[in-house]
Amino acid sequence: MTLSVGYRRSQEWDVRPYDDLSNAFAFTGRQPYVLILDKVSLYVLELVTRHPRQAAAERFAATVGGRLGADEAERRFDRVLDGLSGVGLIESVEQQEAEQ
To answer: Which positions ≥6 away from 50 have C-beta within 8 Å?
Structure first.
């Protein structure tokens, strides 16, 4: 087993996707009170809270890299991840990863 960086949702936030998954509301009791997440932010949030960071980045690139190109997909993933972390929606954690 190796350790890798992963993320979990902050318990301060409640995220509620729209029925059509086009966006999501994120609520918190501290400032800012309500955010609206776009599809890309919601997708990155789901990926990084279910997979180690590297695996999440690879899945994101596999999904959007064909349209954006690999370099732009990586930049977009990092930018969205920084934004989610910056407002406190996610918290960094160490995760155990099975070696292959």
So the answer is: 56
Q: Do residues 37 and 26 touch, judged by C-beta distance below 8 A? A: yes
Q: Are 17 and 24 in contact (CB under 8 A)?
A: yes
How is residue 50 annotated by DSSP? T
User: What are the percentages of helix, strand and coil residues in the chain, rounded to 5?
Assistant: 45, 30, 25
* 38 close to 84: Cβ distance less than 8 angstroms: no
Please choose, from the candidates 2, 40, 47, the residue with its C-alpha nearest in 3D space to the C-alpha of residue 21.
Answer: 40
The model's pTM? 0.84
Alpha-carbon distance of 62 to 69, in angstroms, equals 10
Predicted confidence (pLDDT) per residue in 2-22, tens digit: 667 789 999 999 999 999 989
- Beta-strand pair 23-28/2-9: unpaired
